[in-house]
Structures are given as C-alpha cells and as structure tokens.
Amino acid sequence: MEGHNKLKASEPIIVGTGHTPFGKLALSLEDLIRQAGAEALADAGIDGSQVDAVWLGHFNSGLVPDGFCSSMAIAIDEGLRFKPAVRCENACASGAAAVYAALDAIRAGRISTALVIGAEKMTLRDTAGVTQALSGAAYLLEEAGMSFPDIFARFAQAYGEQFADPAETMARIAVKNHANAMANPLAQLHKPLDLEFCLKVSERNPLI
Fold it and tell me: Is residue 89 part of a domain?
C-alpha cells in the first residue's frame, strides 16, 4: 500500500501483491512470510528501504511456537532492517486487522508506504491440536471445549428451528466455493462438488 504524492493522504492505494499457494506446504512460517512479502515488493517495484513500516496479520494461538513473528519480515529485504513491524491478532480477521492498521497509519500521515502480510502455519500440529488452537478464538465462557464446526452447526440448528432448514443453501454455498477453487491455481482443494453430493450425508460428507 502506498499513499501516492499526487493523492490526498486519505486515499491509500494498493501498488503490489503477493500470494503463496494454500495447502500442506514444506514451508515454515518464516518461509511463508518471506515469500509473500518478497513477491509483493517485487510486484510493487520497490525495495525494503522504501517501506516505512510492516504489519503482520497472524492468529497463532499455539499453532506455532513463534510468539514474535512480526520480526521475521526483516528477512524479506535488507532495507527493512530497523523498520517498525507489528503483529495484529484478531482471530479469523487478523489479516484484515493488519490491512486496516496500515491504512490508518497512511491516512494519518504518519507513513507513506506500508508492507502488510498475512500468514498462518497450521500443519505443525495434528487435527486435535489445530482444533484446540482455533478454539482459542471462541467465547470460552460458553463455548469452551467446542470446535468451530460444532459451534456453526448449532447456529444452523437454531436458524432451522426459527426459520427454515438451511441445509440446501449451505450445500449450494459449498458447490459454489469448490467451483471458485477450480478457477484459482492457488486454492488448496481443486475438486468440484455437485449439489447431490453436498446434500447427501455420507462417510465423505458427514453430518456435524
């Protein structure tokens, strides 16, 4: 993001982007941060010396042992040395929180150019460990010990009791999402699903 000198300070623009593939990659959290950040700088046609500050959107909650990962952005480019870097944590909205924090800094006139990175590594723990980590974003007073699929299933049940069964609508959303993934080379699941499969409870499509 860069506040161009011909634009008002309140009009930040995105001048470069980078994106790693989703999936079980043989990359560390630092690798992901470095790869996405370097790609964004290259796409923008700038180097680290032209960046005023870095924001990293990262949930963690025990998914990785790194608790101060915003510093990893320094390894992207030598010019980022001594540049301030901040980690933003806001559960599933951590990436958006980092973007908005950078936007606020640009609009305030404090900086001109920001590097914003979102990164998460979820394959260092088994399924039970990931479920436990993600549950840290729940409202533990009422939802402790519940997985997010469980929580969302209860919302769906409550909706069905008050309005109408949302199963077909949710199935159509799944079909749409998988169709979109087929058009995205960076998506993790390149497998189309039809409505019949999504509506039928089976071993491959269990009811939660």
Answer: yes
104: domain CATH number is 3.40.47.10
**Total domains in the fold of the chain:** 2
* C-alpha R_g of the chain: 20
Residues 6+ apart with CB under 8 A from 149: 208
For every one of its 208 residues, what pLDDT tens digit does the chain have, with 9 covering 90 and above? 555 455 455 589 999 999 999 999 999 999 999 999 999 999 999 999 999 999 999 998 889 998 889 999 999 999 999 999 999 999 999 999 999 999 999 999 999 999 999 999 999 999 999 988 999 899 989 998 888 889 999 999 999 999 999 999 999 999 999 999 999 999 999 999 999 999 999 999 998 8
Question: Model's pTM, two decimal places?
Answer: 0.86
Residues 166 and 99 in one domain: no
The residues near 140 (Cβ < 8 Å, ≥ 6 apart) are: none
Range of the domain at 183: 138-199
From 50, 36, 61, 201, select the one nearest 130 (Cα to Cα).
Answer: 61
